[in-house]
């Protein structure tokens, strides 16, 4: 290997590391809300039915998702017009501010519903942040990688997302074993948000010195490529077929992902009756294996294509969700719960490992960040953010199994999309969409 090739390789890995580290902190802050919700739900609402308190708390969690389309539009526009670095730096700043707000939020006993209002504002800021973070990091990691390694490199987005969640669960395990249950419910739940705010501040410093991608810089250097039509909703409408495709292929994946990652711990403790510590440990171990699977599946997609993995996920989720969730409902110990959780997450890996690069490969450079951000955020607001709320709604209504069929149905819809979509593995990111844009310019002149 020549010195030049070695230097290029180091630059690629530096971009992946900085992009992934920030993504990890962002998703740590995003997920610890749900992870620690069982401890702070009673702090912000009147005493009463525990399920009702969780519904209120997870309702605020879901509201954060409805700010994601706004964040997707705002940071996607910035990413296409000012660069991926600018969007990533702004997103982590918003996340840091939201973590501070949650850590300092007053309880119901102190400020009535004022504490819940602070919680709501913080989740809205988190929604803005994560709405742009996903697309900015997906675009950055895809563009920063070598053409034949995009699946492998972009898989680190879900590696970092999952590692952020693992750190949150690990912190929860530590607090559960070092603090009393009463202390955790009283004030210990604030600790992860303090940690998240500090981590976001560190990442802000790292992202200020990160390198822009060659694909974006090359496009910006071309006449008109970074002009007035970059990152606008009008330009996105010209690529509406791809935008609707992003929403449809996200639908099944995001519901399954949130079911087997975020909701799993609460499901095992509240529905299966496992102790909270055991449920947390199951999620921690399962997610650790899940994170390790992402680069392997991403590398596999670089060899055989993206569609085979997506189709495998959709078929598995459509036909296995109901039996897996039913068996999880009746587990009696750690090992049986872990085995079923791992089976579910192996299936979900077919989506999570490559969805970032698939979406980025659909759009040209001047609209790529917004093209990924806005439709993905809409799909997450409608399906991912509401997953836990829908699950708890079915549970409260006494028909918990209805949620299993809901997840399977969403996967079935995405399966139809995967079967009909084109393969994107061989697409040249420098050229995708340029022929269409040239035709548009010719018609306008």
TrEMBL record:
<feature type="transmembrane region" description="Helical">
    <location>
        <begin position="370"/>
        <end position="391"/>
    </location>
</feature>
<protein>
    <submittedName>
        <fullName>MFS transporter</fullName>
    </submittedName>
</protein>
<keyword id="KW-0812">Transmembrane</keyword>
<feature type="transmembrane region" description="Helical">
    <location>
        <begin position="54"/>
        <end position="75"/>
    </location>
</feature>
<feature type="transmembrane region" description="Helical">
    <location>
        <begin position="115"/>
        <end position="136"/>
    </location>
</feature>
<feature type="transmembrane region" description="Helical">
    <location>
        <begin position="21"/>
        <end position="42"/>
    </location>
</feature>
<feature type="transmembrane region" description="Helical">
    <location>
        <begin position="87"/>
        <end position="109"/>
    </location>
</feature>
<dbReference type="InterPro" id="IPR011701">
    <property type="entry name" value="MFS"/>
</dbReference>
<feature type="transmembrane region" description="Helical">
    <location>
        <begin position="280"/>
        <end position="297"/>
    </location>
</feature>
<keyword id="KW-1133">Transmembrane helix</keyword>
<dbReference type="InterPro" id="IPR005829">
    <property type="entry name" value="Sugar_transporter_CS"/>
</dbReference>
<feature type="transmembrane region" description="Helical">
    <location>
        <begin position="187"/>
        <end position="206"/>
    </location>
</feature>
<feature type="transmembrane region" description="Helical">
    <location>
        <begin position="403"/>
        <end position="421"/>
    </location>
</feature>
<feature type="transmembrane region" description="Helical">
    <location>
        <begin position="309"/>
        <end position="328"/>
    </location>
</feature>
<dbReference type="InterPro" id="IPR036259">
    <property type="entry name" value="MFS_trans_sf"/>
</dbReference>
<dbReference type="Pfam" id="PF07690">
    <property type="entry name" value="MFS_1"/>
</dbReference>
<dbReference type="InterPro" id="IPR051084">
    <property type="entry name" value="H+-coupled_symporters"/>
</dbReference>
<keyword id="KW-0813">Transport</keyword>
<feature type="transmembrane region" description="Helical">
    <location>
        <begin position="334"/>
        <end position="358"/>
    </location>
</feature>
<feature type="transmembrane region" description="Helical">
    <location>
        <begin position="156"/>
        <end position="175"/>
    </location>
</feature>
<keyword id="KW-0472">Membrane</keyword>
<feature type="domain" description="Major facilitator superfamily (MFS) profile">
    <location>
        <begin position="15"/>
        <end position="426"/>
    </location>
</feature>
<comment type="similarity">
    <text>Belongs to the major facilitator superfamily. Metabolite:H+ Symporter (MHS) family (TC 2.A.1.6) family.</text>
</comment>
<keyword id="KW-1003">Cell membrane</keyword>
<feature type="transmembrane region" description="Helical">
    <location>
        <begin position="243"/>
        <end position="260"/>
    </location>
</feature>
<dbReference type="InterPro" id="IPR020846">
    <property type="entry name" value="MFS_dom"/>
</dbReference>
<keyword id="KW-0769">Symport</keyword>
């Amino acid at each position: 290997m020549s010195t030049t090739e070695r230097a290029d390789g180091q630059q690629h890995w530096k971009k992946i590391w900085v992009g992934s580290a920030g993504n990890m902190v962002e998703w740590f802050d995003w997920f610890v809300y749900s992870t620690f919700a069982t401890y702070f739900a009673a702090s912000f609402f009147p005493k009463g039915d525990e399920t009702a308190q969780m519904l209120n708390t997870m309702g605020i969690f879901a509201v954060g998702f409805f700010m994601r389309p706004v964040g997707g539009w705002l940071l996607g526009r910035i990413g296409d017009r000012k660069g991926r670095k600018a969007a990533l730096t702004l997103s982590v700043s918003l996340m840091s501010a939201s973590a501070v707000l949650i850590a300092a939020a007053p309880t119901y006993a102190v400020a009535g519903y004022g504490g819940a209002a602070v919680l709501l504002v913080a989740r809205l800021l988190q929604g803005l942040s994560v709405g742009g973070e996903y697309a900015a990091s997906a675009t950055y990691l895809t563009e920063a990688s070598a053409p034949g390694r995009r699946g492998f490199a972009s898989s680190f987005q879900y590696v970092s997302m999952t590692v952020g969640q693992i750190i949150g669960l690990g912190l929860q395990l530590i607090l559960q074993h070092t603090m009393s249950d009463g202390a955790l419910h009283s004030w210990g739940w604030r600790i992860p948000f303090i940690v998240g705010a500090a981590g976001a501040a560190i990442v802000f410093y790292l992202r200020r010195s990160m390198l822009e991608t060659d694909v974006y810089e090359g496009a910006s250097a071309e006449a008109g490529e970074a002009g007035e039509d970059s990152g606008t909703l009008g330009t996105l409408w010209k690529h509406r077929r791809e935008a609707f495709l992003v929403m449809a292929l996200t639908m099944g994946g995001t519901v399954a992902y949130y079911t087997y990652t975020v909701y799993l711990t609460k499901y095992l403790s509240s529905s299966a009756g496992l102790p909270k510590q055991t449920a947390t440990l199951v999620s921690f171990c399962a997610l650790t294996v899940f994170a390790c699977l992402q680069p392997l599946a991403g590398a596999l997609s670089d060899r055989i294509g993206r569609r085979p993995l997506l189709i495998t996920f959709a078929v598995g989720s459509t036909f296995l969700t109901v039996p897996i969730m039913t068996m999880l409902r009746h587990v009696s110990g750690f090992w049986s719960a872990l085995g079923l959780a791992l089976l579910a997450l192996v299936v979900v890996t077919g989506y999570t490992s490559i969805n970032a690069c698939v979406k980025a490969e659909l759009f040209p450079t001047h609209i790529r960040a917004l093209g990924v951000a806005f439709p993905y955020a809409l799909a997450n607001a409608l399906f991912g953010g509401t997953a836990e709320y829908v699950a708890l709604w079915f549970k409260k209504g006494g028909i918990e199994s209805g949620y299993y069929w809901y997840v399977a149905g969403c996967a079935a819809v995405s399966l139809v999309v995967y079967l009909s979509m084109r393969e994107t593995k061989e697409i040249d990111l420098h050229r995708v969409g340029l022929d269409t844009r040239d035709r548009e310019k010719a018609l306008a002149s």
